[in-house]
Amino acid sequence: MLQTFRQSMAWLHTWFGLVLGFVLMAVFFFGSLSVFDREIDRWALPETRFEPQPMPSYDNLLADVFPNMEAEEEELDAARKRIGGELPAQLQPVGWGAYTTHRDPVLDVFTEYSVPNPADPFDHVHGHLTLDPRNGTVLPHDRLKIGSEFFYPLHYSLHIQWQQLGTWIVGVAALIMLVALVSGVIIHRRLFRELFTFRPGKRTQRSSLDLHNLTGVVALPFHFIFALSGLTIFAFLYLPVGETVLTTPAQAHLMEEAVSRGLPFEPAGEPAPIASVDAMVMEAKKRWAERGMPGEVGFLWVTHPGDRNSFVSLFRAGSDRVAFVGQGVHFDAVSGRVLYEEPPPSVVAGINEFLTGLHLQHFEHWPLRWLYVLGGLLGCTCIATGFIFFTEKRKRNLKDAALVRRVDALAVTAVTGMVVAAGTILVANRLLPVALPHRGTWEEVVFWLAWLLAFAHAIWRGRAVPGSLSPAWREQCWAIALLAVTAVVLNWITTGDHLLKTLITERYWPVAGLDLALLASAAIAIRVAFLLRGRERATAFVDSQGSRALEVVRG
After folding, report:
1. Based on the domain organization, do 62 and 114 belong to the same domain?
2. For the whole prediction, is pTM greater than 0.85?
3. Average pLDDT for residues 6-25, to the nearest whole number?
């Protein structure tokens, strides 16, 4: 029985942090990579290596793209199973959309179609394309955007899509992280002293605890805000009252809200052409400028396209502010007149927009983005050193040997193994043939296989010797260094974009930045590998001296 409040908090901090620390490790690491997800996309897709483009003309380009789009075949198959029959040859479009940011050379366009499902009148399927906004060329659909379509969703969903289970797991981990932060503060009462305490020359258990405390204290506000804002963003999922318990009143509220804004909720069923959307864009930009916030269109959405009740919604790209806002202006699609201009948000909505924008960081501020990366990596370091401290503390207890080996193997997999998998997918991206069918799927398979192999290696090389880390840590550091350098060299060989070109000649920072980050990662991994090798030798020397002393005593 725990006798004091601090002991209770220590137990809570230890075991909750251990159980969900493996999830949080992935959340922090891939969240850090997601800060530059668009730049990773440019590295992974050489045909997209050109300067960011504004939203292209609807009248001259997008008007010809949307009518020819189709729903994804996988979604159509799922819809057929839901309704238990075939779908009409031509589905009714519910909406057309296009999205871009200040970092996007390419344009994401997507469509939504209504499925005739008596059990669910709001059943929809979707289509998606990636365009070159300069000429409307459709980019290959089976090419994986490693940053925005793999690393970023992995950060918040773990790619577990069934019943959105992955997002729920991450949500529970974020909630437990808040508990761990509070309990950690209670455990470590001398926070100011621990901010300046790090003794790398001490034994592994002491050094890992110092670094755990240091990184936890330094980045405490960052960790707290991002756990809280992440929960806020997915509050609609974690508290889905409107979609479950109160479905009918929620739909009635949406209809009433649309009517109060003068926006048609249902299509009229009468075809009608769309007026000049480019003229609507000019009017929206004029209204934003009059409100003291000139800007470009970041998101365009056409509701009920081709219908008399169709309307166009234009949202401002908010790259000049933290709050995730759009200042939408809605137009009658047939006449082009303004139906509704969204007012400034209320206090509650403003706080939500600020927390959302703070987490998603769509703003244009490169030094702050790098601070986000630093905060995420500090979180990774805090969790990793927590794992090491947990195992080192229990290695002297023979009863905990089996637990120590399991936790140590999982820790290696969650820390170095995860980085090995990330490096492997970049190498695979440069090695797999461009014309390979389902190329993006193969890249994902390579990633998961590499992570699984890292886990097997961690189990094979695991050990529970006091004061000695598993050799798997050092060996996987060498693998990280090799993969990082290989990725940079392969990028040079396969695309011709070497560092001299991307840094000096053309100054294309998305590719140069990732190459430099890979080389820096290789250097850090090599340095850590040498340090770990030194600790192994020192431990072996101490053990040998102890064995000799024991033999002398016995003699």
Report:
1. yes
2. yes
3. 74
Residue 450: is it exposed, middle or buried by C-beta count within 10 angstroms (0-12/13-18/19+)? buried
Verify that 211 and 354 share a domain, yes or no.
Answer: no
Tens of pLDDT, residue by residue over 383-434, are: 888 887 777 777 666 566 777 788 888 889 999 999 999 999 999 999 999 8
Q: Is there a contact between 230 and 360 (Cβ–Cβ < 8 Å)?
A: no
Residues 131 and 172 in one domain: no
Domain membership of residue 317 as a residue range: 53-144+258-360
CA–CA separation, 216 vs 379, rounded Å?
A: 7
My answer on whether 420 and 527 are in the same domain is yes
Helices (H), 220-317: 220-233, 235-238, 247-261, 277-290
Contacts of 148 (CB under 8 A, 6+ apart): 34, 37, 38, 40, 41
Look at residue 386 and tell me if it is in a domain.
Answer: no
Helix orientation angle between 220-233 and 366-394, rounded to the nearest 10 degrees: 100
On whether both 76 and 41 belong to a single domain, the answer is no
- The answer to whether 215 and 382 are in contact (CB under 8 A) is yes
pLDDT (tens digit per residue) in 62-105: 999 999 999 998 888 888 888 888 888 888 899 999 999 889 99
Whether 450 and 187 have beta carbons less than 8 Å apart is answered as no
Q: Which residues face 206 on adjacent strands? A: none
